[in-house]
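Table S2 (continued). Query chain:
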Amino acid sequence: MALFIILGRYTQEGIKNIKESPQRLEAAKKVAESVGGSIKEFYYTLGRYDFIAITEAPNYDAVLKALMTIGSTGAIRTETLQAIPFEKAIDIIKDLP
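Corresponding output:
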């Protein structure tokens, strides 16, 4: 499974209905599971982003499908980063010419 870090911001609609946030997270977890992934950790943050989610998914297609489904609610905007585990990066670095 590939790791992804989702950086999120609430839209005006999302912040207007912030009390629904716990239910939206549960719904997002179900969407992630429906594409074969999972939300491993979720944190509210201060600063540029309102939250981050650490997720696993089988591939980019699954992440894209889940994020488009979740994003279509209009409550959030996201930026997605693929996370490469340290051990995997070390293996790649060792093979550099």
